[in-house]
Amino acid sequence: MEIFLATGNEDKRREIQDLFPGLTFLLPRDRGLPWDVKETGTSFFENALLKAAALSAGLGPGRPVLADDSGLCVDLLAGGPGVESARFGSVPGAKPLSAEDRNALLLQTLEQRERESPETGRGARFVCALVLFLSPYRIYSVQEAVEGEILKAPRGSGGFGYDPLFFLPSLGKTMAELSREEKNRRSHRGLAGAKMNLLLRSLG
Amino acid sequence: MEIFLATGNEDKRREIQDLFPGLTFLLPRDRGLPWDVKETGTSFFENALLKAAALSAGLGPGRPVLADDSGLCVDLLAGGPGVESARFGSVPGAKPLSAEDRNALLLQTLEQRERESPETGRGARFVCALVLFLSPYRIYSVQEAVEGEILKAPRGSGGFGYDPLFFLPSLGKTMAELSREEKNRRSHRGLAGAKMNLLLRSLG
Fold it and tell me: Which of A65, B16, B95, B156 has the smallest number of Cβ neighbours within 10 A?
């Protein structure tokens, strides 16, 4: 089964491909389509849905589209950076911060918030919304989350983004210390992918 | 497994119970909670999500909530009445029309529209969105649809609402001419329920 992925990002194609062996993922550019959808939603689901709907409209009927939107929700930031995770600390229109700079900014911000509200704790969750858009009337979605804590300094060299700061108490490791296989099984995206796989396998 | 159903309607509990044998469905009133959530969303999914989120907030964590929102989308009405299906032709605040009066109004409206735009045809679809709300971060949803045509006069005495007007060409019957078992298998709600069942059975 061929599925179009609503992203311009090759890295995301590789990650998603890992979660759905046996399926072939195509990017908009594989059909010569431009990709510059603005992620203006206020929730992961909304953003995933608007990306999926935009690509589906570009491709026309009969082409299943998968979209992913994910991010980090931190208690000390009242659920932020959330849908702004990739753009945290960045000036609108300018180049986004590097992952290292973004992580340093997050640690600094949390340190200050923790002084103001020490009872909140450093709880956080990674959230992933996957939307499978079969037609404007046939849409499946799965949003999963993993609970963890934001460390005071990065640990581990795997993964990307906020992974080195996100500690999973149940595994005693940060997301950046998981093997690729372990991450595919235990991460927010891995959990959402497993549920979406159930739905995909049920399609005729 | 006990699941709370985000509705005040006993008939909906019975229908949903049919689709999910083995699960126990509770209504808000079974826990003494009032039920008067306004369905202000612009899509079936949005309405189902806001009902599920409202009940989950009332119940507190650890209580799975299922919500349903469904309706009829008619080509000659540019996809309407859609989320307004239950209130079609009704005056806001007043008692909604009876199903018979609503169906008569739909036929009359389509007759007029058909004269204005004869090339559109009488195509329509029944759409059902189901949302399973496990927590604010763990949400599954399925939206399914069945394609059909709006007849020029009602046929059949089963079902309810728009069922006697909705003809399924693949079955050669209206939705109101299906047996209960056939409807559970072939209707928009039946199709969405089957997918949601896959997800429910995968929960630990």
Answer: B95
